[in-house]
């Protein structure tokens, strides 16, 4: 492997944080790095995975699709990013996604509990995962976020991965794991508010539906789902996940406020478009909490907008990790018919059936 220039690393040494995989610039963690070494030879505490599928995060896929369409230019854009950077990190959104694959090799000091042959989904971002693509993405039609792929990826000593469950189809499990941080943190925050009222922007999506179900379990007494289109609203109403389903453009702050009516204790932002910060702030009571899960969020817009509105709200960044988040999300999917209703509708939409 190429040795990075981090001053804390000595030749031949590996770092559980992946510092030894950083090619440039020196001294930063892999997520912040411009380029990583994706050599598929494991360090002593690393795991190498034969990649079968990438799951691009929603904000990144939307931006790439809107810029390049869904044909060869889209494939080339993803291939160029990975070839240049040794990882999948959209230079516009800064986000990546996750992947599914089979463990090829495990370093002798790995503490991840994985063994060769395990089929896993990574629970860390592609923005910090060393990645090589070997098949030119020839089997990807560009029509969805899940990308058939042959290549290799590397997990560090402090990475996270989940062995795929036997009772859930692989691609569905990948979809659940992709957003599993959202329901776990939503549950934690809602449980702090007695008889909470909760708004989910993007309540018709994967993370949105799981967050609605998690909020209900955590004791929410009023659940509002905001979606952009009436067709999506009909799906969420049929799911029974929300008490109220409203239709508005989440990028229009006054439209959001008018649609929601009485402000809420907790707002969860699960949209994949930029410009939704101010509506989330306006819809939240003073003393309430806004959780931003969208990688399209501008955190400067959120902070300065709240200041300009004299809004006394706590704002949290959903970092995608809460202990037990993968198991919790899968359990919600298994136990809540409404969640499955939304996931199935999203799958039909993606497949065009």
Please, could you describe this protein's structure?
This protein has 353 residues and is of the alpha/beta class. It folds into 2 domains: 41-177, Quinone Oxidoreductase, Chain A, domain 1 (Alpha-Beta Complex), CATH 3.90.180; 181-351, Rossmann fold. Helices cover 33% and strands 22% of the residues. It has a 6-stranded antiparallel sheet with strand order 6-7-3-4-5-8, sandwiched between helices. A 6-stranded parallel sheet has the order 11-10-9-12-13-14, with helices on both faces. Strands 1-2 form a two-stranded antiparallel sheet. Helix 1 packs across helix 2 (72-85). The radius of gyration is 20 Å and the shape is globular.
List keywords for this structure.
353 residues; alpha/beta; Quinone Oxidoreductase, Chain A, domain 1; Rossmann fold; six-stranded antiparallel sheet; 33% helix
Q: What oligomeric state best describes the polypeptide chains here?
A: single chain
Q: What pattern of helices and strands is seen along the backbone?
A: EEEHHEEEEEHHEHEHEHEHEHEHH
- Mean pLDDT score, rounded? 92
| Full CATH superfamily name of the largest domain | NAD(P)-binding Rossmann-like Domain
Distance between the termini: 46 Å
| CATH topology value of the largest domain | Rossmann fold
Number of strands: 14
Contiguous helical run count: 11
The outline comes out as: globular
Biggest sheet record: 6 strands, antiparallel
> Structural class, judged by helices and strands?
alpha/beta
Radius of gyration: 20 Å
């Amino acid at each position: 492997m190429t040795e990075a220039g981090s001053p804390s690393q000595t030749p031949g040494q590996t770092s559980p944080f992946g510092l030894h995989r950083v090619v440039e610039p020196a001294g930063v963690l892999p997520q912040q790095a411009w380029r990583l070494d994706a050599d598929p030879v494991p360090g002593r505490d690393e795991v190498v995975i034969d990649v079968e599928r990438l799951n691009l995060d929603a904000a990144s896929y939307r931006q790439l699709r809107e810029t390049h369409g869904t044909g060869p230019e889209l494939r080339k854009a993803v291939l160029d990013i990975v070839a240049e950077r040794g990882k999948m990190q959209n230079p516009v959104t800064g986000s990546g996604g996750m992947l599914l694959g089979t463990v090829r090799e495990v370093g002798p000091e790995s503490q991840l509990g994985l063994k060769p042959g395990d089929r896993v989904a990574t629970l860390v971002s592609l923005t910090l995962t060393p990645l090589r693509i070997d098949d030119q993405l020839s089997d990807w039609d560009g029509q969805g976020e899940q990308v058939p792929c042959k290549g290799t990826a590397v997990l560090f000593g402090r990475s996270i991965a989940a062995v795929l469950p036997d009772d859930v189809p692989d691609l569905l499990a990948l979809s659940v794991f992709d957003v599993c941080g959202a329901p776990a943190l939503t549950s934690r925050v809602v449980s702090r508010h007695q008889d909470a009222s909760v708004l989910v922007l993007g309540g018709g999506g994967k993370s949105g539906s799981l967050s609605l179900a998690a909020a209900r379990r955590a004791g929410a007494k009023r659940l509002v789902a905001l979606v952009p289109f009436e067709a999506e609203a009909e799906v969420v109403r049929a799911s029974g996940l929300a008490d109220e389903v409203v239709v508005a453009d989440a990028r229009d702050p006054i439209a959001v406020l008018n649609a929601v009516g009485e402000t809420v204790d907790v707002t969860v932002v699960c949209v994949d478009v930029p410009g939704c910060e101010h509506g989330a702030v306006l819809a939240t009571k003073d003393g309430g909490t806004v959780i931003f899960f969208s990688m399209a969020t501008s955190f400067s817009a959120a902070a300065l907008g709240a200041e300009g509105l004299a809004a006394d709200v706590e704002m949290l960044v959903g970092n995608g990790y809460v202990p037990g988040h993968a198991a919790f999300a899968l359990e919600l999917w298994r136990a809540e018919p409404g969640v499955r209703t939304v996931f199935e509708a999203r799958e039909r939409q993606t497949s065009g059936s």
